[in-house]
Amino acid sequence: MGLEAPIIEVSEKRRARRRTTGARVGVRALGKQRVETRLLDISRYGFRVAAERLAPGSSVWLKLADSEPQLARVVWSDQYASGCVFLEPLDQMIYRTALRTAGIATTIIA
Questions:
Q1: What is the dihedral of CA 83, 15, 21, 33, to 10 degrees?
Q2: Where does the record place the PilZ domain (predicted)?
Q3: DSSP designation for 3
Q4: pLDDT in tens, 38-88
Q5: d(CA 10, CA 26)
Q6: How confident is the model at residue 15 (pLDDT cuts 50, 70, 90)?
Q7: Global pTM value
Q8: How far apart are CA 88 and CA 80, in angstroms?
Q9: Looking at CB atoms within 10 Å, which of 4, 5, 106, 109 has the fewest?
Q10: How far apart are CA 45 and CA 6, in angstroms?
């Protein structure tokens, strides 16, 4: 039985609610080495990671457990975290697997 994660409210700029998670993931900016970090929240359309000073507008790869790296664009970044949008929405199965891996219940209506 998974833990129910808090759902982050949808802002005017987001297409879907994000689920809070603390999963370990890999993030790699193009031309850079992969960095292991914490996935703070995720939806099928975007995510926030504990990776500081990623350049807004730049492309990054997010490596979730049991899936191929997913390409995203950095929307904002500060000294604590970076928010990104996937170039293509995550496949529903990849999204559910990422939540399950993080120990989050996956009763999700898309």
A1: -40
A2: 12-91
A3: B
A4: 999 999 999 999 987 899 999 999 999 888 999 999 999 999 999 999 999
A5: 25
A6: low
A7: 0.79
A8: 25
A9: 109
A10: 17
